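Try this one yourself first.
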């Protein structure tokens, strides 16, 4: 959490920029979400999937996918006056997880995108953020044709810590993605405040 204009004159509102991660399994919609909500042209590091990569990347259920993120996606959205979110989409394949620790530095929280057809693909992201005590919400990307599940069922299936929010979304729709991000900021704010109070109490 850093001010965008640290040298602003006294009395002026300083803009706050928060770092948010967008994580999840391969092909779940991370690049789509960042692109849908970003008010700037998103930075993407996508490369074409190769035959060599197919031997190490599990493409079951995402056979139509032709590209993959190899470093990160980046976008920005202004939630309200004075509050912007910098979005960092993580790569989904196991072989790029070494990037996650760098991307997670200074993050307020994370969105873990989930596809109920391949729910197990988001287990590593859930474990990663739980073990590092980084607040996160699970956003179930409601793909066309996929069976709809209640948020409570998803929470039980993922064995989430009590209170971890699960929300339904459409990663292609800006308003839907923005609602997910607002929910995350509210939740992460409560978590950080509670930890601060615990540390001084």
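Now uncover the answer:
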């Amino acid at each position: 959490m850093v001010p965008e204009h640290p040298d602003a004159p006294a009395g002026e509102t300083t803009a706050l920029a928060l770092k948010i991660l967008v994580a999840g399994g391969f092909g779940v919609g991370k690049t789509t979400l960042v692109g849908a909500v970003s008010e700037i042209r998103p930075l993407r590091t996508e490369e074409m999937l190769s035959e060599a990569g197919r031997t190490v990347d599990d493409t079951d259920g995402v056979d139509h996918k032709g590209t993959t993120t190899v470093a990160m996606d980046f976008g920005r959205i202004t939630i309200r006056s004075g509050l912007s979110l910098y979005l960092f989409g993580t790569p989904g394949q196991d072989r790029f997880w070494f990037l996650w620790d760098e991307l997670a530095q200074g993050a307020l929280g994370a969105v873990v995108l989930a596809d109920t057809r391949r729910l197990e693909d988001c287990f590593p992201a859930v474990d990663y953020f739980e073990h590092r005590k980084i607040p996160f919400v699970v956003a179930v990307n409601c793909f066309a044709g996929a069976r709809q599940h209640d948020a409570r069922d998803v929470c039980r299936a993922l064995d989430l810590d009590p209170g971890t929010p699960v929300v339904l979304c459409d990663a292609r729709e800006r308003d839907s993605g923005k609602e997910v991000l607002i929910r995350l900021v509210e939740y992460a704010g409560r978590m950080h405040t509670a930890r601060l109070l615990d540390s001084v109490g």
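Discussion: The chain is about 30% helix and 25% strand. Confidence is low (pLDDT under 50) at residues 6-12.
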